[in-house]
Write a structure and sequence with these properties.
The complex is a heterodimer of chains A (221) and B (365).
Chain A: E1 11-16, E2 21-28, E3 31-39, H1 44-58, E4 68-72, H2 78-95, E5 99-102, H3 104-109, E6 116-123, E7 126-131, E8 137-139, E9 154-157, H4 160-167, E10 170-171, H5 178-189
Parallel strand pairs in A: 1-4, 4-5, 6-9, 9-10
Antiparallel strand pairs in A: 1-2, 2-3, 6-7, 7-8
Helix pairs in contact in A: 1-2
Chain B: E1 4-11, E2 16-25, E3 30-39, H1 41-44, H2 52-60, H3 63-74, E4 83-89, H4 93-110, E5 114-118, H5 119-131, E6 137-142, E7 147-154, E8 157-163, H6 169-179, H7 186-194, H8 219-236, H9 241-271, E9 279-283, H10 290-303, E10 306-308, H11 312-315, H12 320-331
Parallel strand pairs in B: 1-4, 4-5, 6-9, 9-10
Antiparallel strand pairs in B: 1-2, 2-3, 6-7, 7-8
Helix pairs in contact in B: 2-4, 5-12, 6-7, 6-8, 7-9, 8-9, 9-10
Classes of the chains: A alpha/beta (221), B alpha/beta (365).
C-alpha cells in the first residue's frame, strides 16, 4: 500500500444497510466510480456481498485494489446495521485494511458549510438527532436538546421543517446519496491514526426486561 | 486423493462467540489447531436467560477479534486457510447473521470457499472430530436450547428419532436455579445442590414416559418444581438449605430417569439396524451432568454399546465443531455462495415430522 495516499488516489468501497435498502459506492480520490442503491425491506444479508462485487466489477476493480472500507454504522435498523458492520469487519480482517465506520447522521450532514442539525426517524415517536459535531442522541419531538439559535443552522432529515422552525434554520437535502456520503466521510478520515474498528451506533438500549423470578428467602442462610 | 484441508470455523448462534481452526488430512484424524470461545454469561445474567438483541450486539463486535485470536493460537495466517465454515442456523438470528456476514467478508477478501454449517450438525459430528467414529451412530444432543435423538448416517444425513416437544433440559435447569436462588447457568449449580440432597423426598413427574416414542417434555417439570417450592414457602415462610438441596435432587432425578428411559427406546431403534460398532454419543452442555452420564453409561454397558462423551469444551458451543462439520460437507462437495442465508429454523432431519415451533414457518430444529 502506498505510504502517502495523497499521491495515489485511494480507492474506497462504502456500503450501508442501516435502513430499508442495500447501498454501495466505489470512490476513487474525489470521484465516484460506481454506485448502487437497491430499496429492500429484507434480504440485505443475502444481497450485500453480491452487490459489492457488482459495484467493484462496474468500476473495473477487485477487493485487492482497495485502500479502505467505509461502512454505515447507523443509527437505524439494528439487524441492518449489524449486517454491514459484520461484513466490513470480515473484509477488513481479510484484506488487512482499515474499515471506517460512518454514522448515518454524519453521512447525511456531509458536504454542507455551517452548523448542521442532522436528524433521522427513530420510530415510536422518537428521532435521532445530532447538532454539528456534537454527540448524537435519541429524543422525542417534545424533548429536543437546546438548538443553536443564532447562526441559521442547516436542518437535514426527519422533521427538518419543524426543527428549522424552532431555531430559525434552513431546511436542506443531503448533498450526497448515502453510500457516496459514507465513502466521502471515510476518505476524509483515511489518514487518521488509530482508527477504531467500526461499531454499530444503536443509540437505543436493547429491549430486555430483568427476570421476574424472585429467589425465595433462605431460612438458615 | 489425499488432501490436507485447513478450515476456519465461526459460531455465533446463541451466547458464545467462537472461532477455531481445524486441519485434516484426507482419511486421517482431524486436528484442532485452535478453539476460542468468548462467553456472554455476564451480559445476560440479570435477565434470567439469553436476550437475543444483547447477544447479537456482543457477537457483532467480537467475531473478528475472535478469528484473529484463533489464527494466532494456531500459529497460522489467513493464507494458510482452505475455506471458511460458519454456522448458518438454527439459532438466534441476529447472532447467526453477524457470523455469516463476517465469514462472507473474510471469504470474499481472501477468495476462499464458504461453507454454511447447521449448528446441530456441528454438535452431531463432534464424535467424528474427537474420536473418528464411523457412521451410523446414535446421538443424544442435550443442551440449553436443544434435546433430540439422532442417528447420524452422513455429514448431512440424519434421522431424528424423537426430541423435546417443548423446553430443552438446559432451560429447565436454568429455571430451577432461578426459582431457588442459585447462580446461572443452572446446570452446574443445581447438580452441586442435588449432590447434597435426598432425591426421594420430593417426587416429580416423569413426563411422556407412558408413551412408547422417543419424545420428551420438560416444561411441566418446571411448573411442578415451582408448585412444590411455593407449598414449602407457604407452610414455613421460606426454604431451608435442606429443602433446596432436596428439591434439586428430586428435580435432577426426574430429568435423569426420563432421559435415560427415552435413550433406551432410541437405542433399541438404533440397535435394530444392526450397526457395525454400536455407539451412543452425547453432546450439548447438559451432557456434562455427571448423573446423566452415569445413567447413560450403565445403559450402554448393558447393551454392549460404546458410550462416547467428547470433552466438555467440545460438548458445549464451540467453533471447532463448525470447522469440522464444514470440512466434512466440503469433502462431500458442498460450497455456498455469497448469498448464503442465515436461518433461524433449520431442522437436521428434513423428513421426520416437526416437534416444536412447527407453524407456517416450518420446523425449528
Amino acid at each position: 500500500m502506498p505510504s502517502d495516499h495523497m499521491t495515489v488516489k485511494p480507492l474506497i468501497l462504502a456500503f450501508d444497510t442501516s435502513a430499508a435498502h442495500c447501498a454501495a459506492a466505489l470512490l476513487r480520490g474525489h470521484d465516484i466510480v460506481s454506485q448502487r442503491l437497491e430499496p429492500m425491506a429484507r434480504g440485505q444479508a443475502e444481497r450485500l456481498m453480491p452487490l459489492l462485487e457488482e459495484v467493484l466489477a462496474e468500476g473495473g476493480a477487485s477487493y485487492g485494489d482497495l485502500q479502505a472500507i467505509g461502512v454505515g454504522i447507523g443509527p437505524g435498523n439494528f439487524t441492518g446495521i449489524r449486517i454491514s458492520v459484520s461484513a466490513a469487519r470480515g473484509l477488513a480482517l481479510g484484506l488487512d485494511l482499515p474499515a471506517i465506520g460512518v454514522s448515518s447522521l454524519d453521512a447525511q450532514a456531509f458536504g454542507q458549510t455551517g452548523t448542521v442539525i442532522s436528524s433521522l426517524d427513530a420510530r415510536r415517536d422518537h428521532l435521532y438527532l445530532q447538532i454539528a459535531d456534537g454527540a448524537p442522541g435519541l429524543y422525542t419531538p417534545d424533548s429536543l436538546p437546546p438548538l443553536p439559535q443564532d447562526d441559521r443552522p442547516i436542518c437535514i432529515g426527519h422533521m427538518a421543517d419543524d426543527i428549522a422552525g424552532r431555531c430559525g434554520g434552513i431546511v436542506a437535502s443531503p448533498r450526497y446519496a448515502t453510500a457516496e456520503a459514507i465513502a466521502r466521510v471515510a476518505a476524509s478520515r483515511l489518514g487518521q491514526p488509530d482508527l477504531p474498528a467500526p461499531a454499530p451506533l444503536y443509540l437505543r438500549e436493547a429491549d430486555a426486561a430483568p427476570s421476574h423470578d424472585t429467589p425465595p428467602a433462605l431460612l438458615d442462610a | 486423493m489425499t488432501q490436507t484441508l485447513t478450515f476456519l470455523g465461526l459460531e455465533s448462534s446463541c451466547d458464545d462467540t467462537a472461532a477455531a481452526v481445524v486441519r485434516q488430512r484426507d482419511g486421517g484424524p482431524a486436528e484442532i489447531l485452535s478453539s476460542i470461545v468468548y462467553g456472554q454469561t455476564d451480559l445476560h445474567s440479570s435477565f434470567g436467560g439469553v436476550v437475543p438483541e444483547i447477544a447479537a450486539r456482543a457477537h457483532a463486535e467480537k467475531l473478528d477479534t475472535c478469528v484473529r485470536d484463533a489464527l494466532t493460537q494456531a500459529h497460522l495466517s489467513l493464507d494458510d486457510l482452505d475455506a471458511v465454515a460458519v454456522t448458518a442456523g438454527p439459532g438466534l438470528i441476529g447472532g447467526v447473521m453477524s457470523g455469516v456476514m463476517c465469514a462472507k467478508g473474510i471469504a470474499a477478501a481472501r477468495n476462499l470457499p464458504l461453507v454454511g454449517v447447521n449448528h446441530l450438525a456441528g454438535h452431531a459430528l463432534t464424535p467424528r472430530l474427537t474420536d473418528g467414529i464411523d457412521y451410523p451412530y446414535l446421538m443424544l444432543l442435550v443442551s440449553g436450547g436443544h434435546c433430540q435423538f439422532l442417528i447420524a448416517r452422513g455429514p448431512e444425513l440424519f434421522t431424528r428419532l424423537g426430541g423435546t416437544i417443548d423446553d430443552a433440559p438446559g432451560e429447565a435447569f436454568d429455571k430451577t436455579a432461578r426459582l431457588l436462588g442459585l447462580p446461572q447457568p443452572g446446570g452446574p449449580s443445581v447438580q452441586a445442590e442435588a449432590e447434597m440432597g435426598d432425591p426421594d423426598r420430593f417426587r416429580f413427574p416423569r413426563p411422556l414416559l407412558d408413551r412408547p416414542d422417543c419424545n420428551l417434555s420438560f416444561s411441566g417439570l418446571k411448573t411442578a418444581l415451582m408448585r412444590m417450592r411455593d407449598q414449602i414457602i407457604e407452610t414455613q415462610g421460606g426454604l431451608t438449605r435442606r429443602d433446596r438441596a432436596d428439591l434439586c435432587a428430586g428435580f435432577q432425578a426426574a430429568i435423569v430417569e426420563t432421559l435415560v428411559k427415552k435413550t433406551q427406546r432410541a437405542l433399541d431403534l438404533y440397535l435394530a439396524e444392526a450397526p457395525g460398532r454400536p455407539t451412543l454419543a452425547v453432546a450439548g452442555g447438559v451432557a456434562a451432568n455427571t448423573e446423566i452420564r452415569k445413567g447413560l453409561m450403565q445403559l450402554c454397558a448393558t447393551s454392549g454399546t460404546d458410550f462416547l462423551a467428547p470433552p466438555l469444551a467440545l460438548c458445549t458451543d464451540n467453533a471447532a465443531m463448525i470447522a469440522y462439520a464444514g470440512l466434512e460437507r466440503f469433502r462431500a462437495g458442498a460450497r455456498d455462495g455469497m448469498d448464503l442465508i442465515a436461518r433461524p429454523r433449520w431442522p437436521l432431519d428434513k423428513t421426520s415430522p416437526a416437534l416444536i415451533g412447527s407453524g407456517k414457518k416450518g420446523a425449528k430444529a
